[in-house]
Amino acid sequence: MAEGDTTTLERPFFEAARGEADHPHSAVVRFGADAPLPLDAGGMLSPFQIAYQTYGALNAARSNAILLCHALSGDQHAANVHPVTGKPGWWETLVGPGKPIDTDRFFVIASNVLGGCLGTTGPSSTNPATGQPYGLDLPVVTIRDMVRAQSMLLDHLGIARLLAVVGGSMGGMQVLQWAASYPERVFAAMPIATAARHSAQNIAFHEVGRQAVMADPDWRAGRYLVEGTSPRRGLAVARMAAHITYMSDGSLHRKFGRRLQDRDGHTFSFDADFQVESYLRHQGEAFVDRFDANSYLYVTRAMDYFDLAADYGGVLAHAFKGSRTRFCLVSFTSDWLFTTADSRAVVHALNAAGAQVSFAEIDSDKGHDAFLLEEPEFSAITRGFIDAAARAVGVA
Ligand SMILES: CC(=O)SCCNC(=O)CCNC(=O)[C@H](O)C(C)(C)COP(=O)(O)OP(=O)(O)OC[C@H]1O[C@@H](n2cnc3c(N)ncnc32)[C@H](O)[C@@H]1OP(=O)(O)O
Ligand SMILES: N[C@@H](CCO)C(=O)O
């Protein structure tokens, strides 16, 4: 696909993407029976495929590759116009020619996660055993499974070591997992607005969202693609609730306060009187046009299961033992979902492991989603960290 191509999909995008060897909007690598993916849930996933985008060029030494890991509802369209929404890629604030992650200098890779719905195998993909969408027959996947699949993509691309792996939120979990699972493949790691384990509060929010999806009669026990329905209302409510957690009290107040939506007074009804209600309804409705409900269940579950220390005897530092990767962690002051304390816990573990680590807490009122928005200090830190890594490995 050419950058900027906004061809409209004729079918819902996740139906168009499911199980096909090719994806209309991204490069796809398909792993057959000779390359099964071992899953933490047990067993192997085979065949499976990964949809990805690349930006910039790989240098002759193959030393300038940067992997971007996306958050819960992101995808591979980090720095190109999104084929479904027609909006800019989710990280165009940071990624592009001359930007902090400079595609004139670096070969940037972004792939859709396992369990997702934009071309990588997920619950809307075709189950080869039945010829129908997997639905809930797809094994539950983990962050480690996602990263294992990404490592196979890198093998396919002929990249032995990444200059950097970078991501926020669930993307940051993948960054931490990369550093733990494949330390020799990661020169620099930037986990942003993330944590080494999902908190009880965050699992609780996810469970509310999943219950909203599953309570929608159109969910049909996960078989809605086969039955020709779509749990739009449930997924929209899930997104509305989640979206509140991505913002802060301050940013909601700054954007909307108690202002009314296109009216002079209360209607004494349950219409969206307040701007903030109208805004949330819009976020919910926009989401169902670009995301698959079952993928929402799988990807939130992967985050819930993430507890890196648990895989290393309960001691997070052991996950980074002997690591030569250099780390830069970033948190945002108003992020109450993945707090500064969560990042500090990782920094402490890295210090205990003797790893190279720097940490920045950015002052912002934008809440968790600050990492997706224009934040000059965040951009400057990213540029500095990536440039220093590039200098250290001799990337021009
Ligand atoms: C991280 C990844 O890997 S990818 C996933 C990232 N993308 C998302 O999460 C998408 C949904 N999230 C958002 O939109 C996030 O708030 C952000 C951070 C990405 C963008 O934030 P901002 O640029 O501040 O946008 P904001 O939150 O104000 O939302 C703007 C939208 O709300 C709409 N809106 C604003 N006020 C109102 C209102 N009173 N009533 C109805 N709609 C409203 C705007 O029209 C705009 O709609 P559009 O997106 O369809 O054009
Ligand atoms: N709002 C972003 C970040 C959530 O962690 C997303 O939907 O992916």
UniProtKB/TrEMBL annotation:
Substrate binds at residues 239, 369. It holds the Pfam family Abhydrolase_1. It catalyses: L-homoserine + acetyl-CoA = O-acetyl-L-homoserine + CoA. Keywords: Acyltransferase, Amino-acid biosynthesis, Cytoplasm, Methionine biosynthesis, Transferase. Its EC number is 2.3.1.31. InterPro entries: AB_hydrolase_1 (IPR000073), AB_hydrolase_fold (IPR029058), HAT_MetX-like (IPR008220). It comes from the Bacteria. It is found in: Cytoplasm. Pathway: Amino-acid biosynthesis; L-methionine biosynthesis via de novo pathway; O-acetyl-L-homoserine from L-homoserine: step 1/1. SUPFAM superfamilies: alpha/beta-Hydrolases (SSF53474). The active site is at 169 (nucleophile), 335, 368. Its main location: cytoplasm. One of its GO terms (molecular function) is homoserine O-acetyltransferase activity. Residues 64-373 form the AB hydrolase-1 domain. Transfers an acetyl group from acetyl-CoA to L-homoserine, forming acetyl-L-homoserine. Belongs to the AB hydrolase superfamily. MetX family. Homodimer. This is Homoserine O-acetyltransferase. It comes from Ancylobacter amanitiformis. The lineage of its organism: Bacteria, Pseudomonadati, Pseudomonadota, Alphaproteobacteria, Hyphomicrobiales.
